[in-house]
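COMPLEX REQUEST
Ligand: adenosine-5'-diphosphate
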Amino acid sequence: MKNPSYAYFCSSKKKLSSFFLQLKKRLLVGWAVVLGVFVSCAAPSSPQTEFVLGTVCSINLFEYGRPERYRALFARLREIEDRMSVNKTGTELDAVNEAAGRAPVPVHPDTYYVVEKALEYARVSGGAFDPTVGPLVKLWGIGTEDAHVPNPSEIEGALKKIDYQKVLLDSEHHTIYLTEEGMALDLGAIAKGFAADELAAMLRQWRIRRALIDLGGNILVVGEKQDGSPWRIGVQDPRSGRGEYIGIVQIKRDKTTVTSGVYERYFEQNGKRYHHILSTRDGYPVQNGLLSVTIVADRSIDADALSTTVFALGYEKGLSLLEPLDVGGIFIFENQEVAVTRNLSSQFQLTNTAYRLSPPR
Ligand code: ADP
Ligand code: MG
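STATUS: Structure written out below.
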């Protein structure tokens, strides 16, 4: 989460209280989701946790976990946040958005890369995933104290500003240009994935062979467990939102699992729940029978982008997008069915009896 999620850093007192509320909630969720992992960890170690990238980030190095290592890792997360957050002033993304319709803005390779990747996913999803969703995200304000259902004319206005084809990248000068005034990038659906991959790269450089990274539920395991048993990652129950899980994915080594769902960020108005993954077609939270999508992949940037993309596309189209890729997917539906892609079926175990597995397809 980001934007609202990512964008969670607050200036007013009101927002500050929501920040702490959210922090508390995320702490609970974060801890419980990785419980399955900790339960089976042989070596005693203690994770370090900080609030960054709009969420609770926890890192557990199972070897060479010296304080300076943790400091460097969290500093890297803050650096990424300072470049890509939309609600912090002075970020590069902020500068790109400010200059919309006026001028290209030079950015750091980090930001350039993440925007480039986001545009790839926008293309493959025909714009269901679209990093120019910024004006719509801002309008709904989900994850802030100002969250409310906008009126239809506001939604129409925001939709007109969304079009990934109007983002021009210049690879020679490393600039990003939003060609129309009022456009705004939001990298909330992808930046945490990038961040997790960056941390993993640092660990590889330091030759740390075993670690667990949890950026607000985006989980990345590095290496194998010492005793050779698989890592066990809990898949969040989207209806409880309290860190309870519906099942376990077993992972041998070096994978990432990322979930997008209705429980992550939402508000309620007149008894109806509005969550934070927005349809770029009608401007409202996506409603397609899905409660969450979990992606298991090699790289977290792909898993993060794909979990949002597949959620936005829905089951059928999402599945066709996943099939040619070497990634796994777990779909949880409103009717409590759970569908798991064939390549993941032997690694996933449903543990919550309120749900039932549908046959693999
Ligand atoms: P989380 O933030 O919980 O990790 P996601 O990765 O699914 O969840 O990202 C959701 C965030 O992505 C929203 O909070 C918003 O900032 C942004 N977003 C919402 N709808 C879209 C969309 N259709 N395409 C791209 N980004 C979106
Ligand atoms: Mg995502």
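REMARKS: The longest strand covers residues 290-297. Residues 189-190, 260, 304-305, 307-308 surround magnesium ion (ligand 2) (CB under 6 Å).
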